[in-house]
Design goal:
Blueprint (H helix, E strand, L loop, with lengths): L2 H15 L4 E5 L5 H7 L8 E6 L3 H8 L3 H7 L4 H13 L5 E7 L14 E8 L2 E8 L4 H20 L1
Parallel strand pairs: 1-2, 1-3
Antiparallel strand pairs: 3-4, 4-5
Helix pairs in contact: 1-6
Length: 159
């Protein structure tokens, strides 16, 4: 069993133990978090749904993020990661949310936000925690690292 599967099993066990439903809001990971957790048998008891909001328009339309907030901070920011997680909670029946937004490359870098800049958020009960990391590797590696960090962060957030 690979490390990602073991991690997803731990996430599912903790969510089950706490009787919580998870929702994801993903941009740069393209649904990778939702895919990882739904690989686990029985995940329907603790996984509600996932939003893949790759474009700024979809972040606004599906998650209710004001376009002005995106214009102010950029879609790759802790502020938008927080808004994504909070928007996913507001638009689902879930209890806890995680979000990812970043630049997986090789294109997309902007001043102050190089390829590998990834922002995360975890939200529950009016409390939201964000992180910004600078990861290294190719596109595939960056997306895989993002999924792993999002799930590890969820375990810490719920601990």
């Amino acid at each position: 069993m690979d490390d990602l599967t073991q991690l997803a099993i731990k996430v599912g066990a903790l969510l089950s133990e706490k009787n919580l439903l998870l929702v994801t809001a993903e941009s740069c990971s393209g649904g990778g978090v939702a895919h990882a957790v739904t690989e686990i048998s029985g995940s329907s008891t603790w996984f509600e749904c996932g939003f893949i909001t790759y474009s700024n328009a979809s972040k606004s339309e599906m998650l209710g993020i004001p376009p002005a907030l995106i214009a102010q901070h950029g879609s790759v920011s802790e502020e938008i990661a927080a808004a994504m997680a909070e928007g996913a909670l507001a638009n689902s029946e879930a209890h806890v949310a995680l979000s990812t937004t970043g630049i997986a490359g090789p294109l997309g870098a902007v001043p102050g936000k190089p390829v590998g800049t990834i922002c995360f958020a975890w939200s529950m009960n009016g409390r939201t925690h964000t992180e910004r990391l600078l990861l290294s590797g190719d596109r595939k590696s960056l997306r895989e690292q993002t999924v792993v960090h999002a799930l590890k962060g969820l375990l810490l957030f719920l601990a």
